[in-house]
Structure prediction request, 291 residues.
Amino acid sequence: MELLARTVDVTRRYGDQVALDGVSLDIPAGGVVGLLGPNGAGKSTLINLLVGLRRPTSGHVELFGGDPRDPASRRRIGVTPQETGLPATLRVRECVAFVAAHFADPVPTGELLAGFGLTEVAGRQTGGLSGGQKRRLAVALGFVGRPDLVFLDEPTTGLDVQARRELWDHVREYGRTGTVVLTSHYLEEIEALADRVVVVGRGRVLADDTVEAIRGMVGIHRVSIAATELPDLPGVVGVEQADGRTSLLTPDPDQLVRDLVRSGVAFHGLQVQPTTLEEAFLTLTTAKTGS
Prediction:
């Protein structure tokens, strides 16, 4: 299988802060790769290295077999960064035409705008767009050059539910013939789109597997009770308190209930239920990274 991009034992420091710590990652051709992790995990830094916006402090980065800063390699990618500044006085269609002029065979402007639900605002200046419309335009610009590899960094930030689902459809369709690297801290988003999931935390790769395998790592349950105080209990990976109730997050709810009874603590209103996938992921990520 063709290898489009890779990092080999890459470390990136910003002063005393270690953003990436010995990360090795291969991006083969085809499908959607999801980079999943909480804010500050190192996802954006990894993207910036792969697209040539930053250099590694140590280690090696390749894009299409060469230097990510080589213009010939960068013409084959599309990028939507986490934050995008659009020229406020350019109209939407002018913004698309400007970016399209950098590519030999761009997607026609009308076709691109229709695909991202922007036809009705084609004549509007970008400074007058809503936050969601600006985000959709930023994502659309990542696809205008028919790239072999697209990097989308938190692409659905600021989008409403309908716009998010429509963007998911576009990414899913593109991944059938091209390659997409998608970062998000939403497990639901990665689960909906990715063929492969790379879990990043504190600058390290914590897991790299299929969606199904990653889901199997987050078998956490919520044991919710009403109690005045609780002792430290084994097997608890997270504690939350709300509305007079305490929720204990654990991979073994049966054992936790037994430990509660044996502790002699008075409690009532016992409820045991699975956590949401996103909630469980964040709990395990926090535990694995030592925060």
Q: What stands out?
A: The chain has two domains: 3-214, 221-274.
